[in-house]
Amino acid sequence: MPSQRNAVFRARGIRKVYQMGEVQVEALRSIDLDLYEGELVVLLGASGSGKSTLLNILGGLDVPTAGEVVYRNHDLTVDDDRALTAYRREHVGFVFQFYNLIPSLTALENVALVTEIADAPMPPEDALALVGLSERLSHFPAQLSGGEQQRVAIARAVAKRPEVLLCDEPTGALDYQTGKMVLEVIEHVNRSLGTTTAVITHNAAIAAMADRVVHMRSGEITHIDENATKVSPSELSW
Q: What is the rounded distance in angstroms from the CA atom of residue 64 to the CA atom of residue 66?
């Protein structure tokens, strides 16, 4: 990653320990990582490697046991719950494996829920157009395919114009072709809005679309690859 690019996140010495009864489980061990403006990073590793824990800490959903996470010039590790809630609302968009849409609301209404509490959101119609769903505004989740529901979830995440988009196994519940379509949408958001994007996956093939690939195992980063041969999601095969 060129040195002149600005770091959005700087994580140093991140450690996360969970107490499970009398047993301590070390989910993260001394993680050092920078994420840069506008890049698309894939966090790659098997289940239990610590990917989701790291993503949750970057997104302010969890706090580390030790270490420092700086977003821009702000140390997230000193924030209380209220400050972390404000940080998530103002700066971060989340996309999870399961869509978490409200069944009784249309696609447009699901997205509008977020725009009503954001400071400078894009119109919900524009967010849905960005993910190719202009013709589905009035459809309820039950009337949408899995891929369409995930695209509504992406529209909901980006409608508040977040600086960071964090995606945890966004294709995990989708078939191959639908998964590629969702990855194309994520790449389009990253490219068109300049949103710093991190995608968790255990699927090594997906790593080919990233600017950088962060390999994780047993709560540690084993190595980071700069991707000189980045391909579009339409070219992926797995």
A: 5
